[in-house]
Amino acid sequence: MSQSIAAPPGGSQAPISEGARWMQIVVGIVCMVAAANIQYAWTLFVPEIQATHGWTRASI
């Protein structure tokens, strides 16, 4: 398996390996999934907080 090396336009920085690129995309996807779960869970708690405390969505 060969690795393709991409150099930035300036040419002065170290090249980025193909493996590092895949690792970046995997880490990015994991972070997006983690953030999406928190956002989804928050929407489940807001109505209960409103009912319990009588607060508006803006104040929550």
Question: How would you sum up this structure, described in words?
Answer:
It is a single chain. The longest helix has 36 residues. The chain starts with 17 loop residues before the first helix and ends in a 7-residue tail after the last helix. The chain is mainly alpha-helical. It is rod-shaped, with a radius of gyration of 22 Å. 0% of the residues are buried. Helix content is 60%, strand content 0%. It contains one helix and no strands.
Number of strands: 0
How much of the sequence is in beta strands? under 5%
| Unreliable residue stretches | none
Output the number of helix runs.
Answer: 1
- What's the pLDDT, averaged over the residues? 85
Give the termini distance in whole angstroms: 53 Å
Query: Mind telling me the C-alpha Rg?
Result: 22 Å
Shape, per Cα inertia axes: rod-shaped
Decide which structural class fits the backbone: mainly alpha
Share of helix, binned: 55-70%
Largest sheet: none
- Along the chain, the helix and strand elements come as H
Organism: Azospirillum formosense
Keywords: Membrane, Transmembrane, Transmembrane helix
Protein name: Oxalate/formate MFS antiporter
Transmembrane segments: 22-42
Key features?
60 residues; mainly alpha; 1 helix; 60% helix
In short:
It comes from Azospirillum formosense. By secondary structure, the chain is mostly helical.
List strands and helices in order, with pairings.
Layout: H1 18-53
Transmembrane segments: 22-42
Protein name: Oxalate/formate MFS antiporter
Organism: Azospirillum formosense
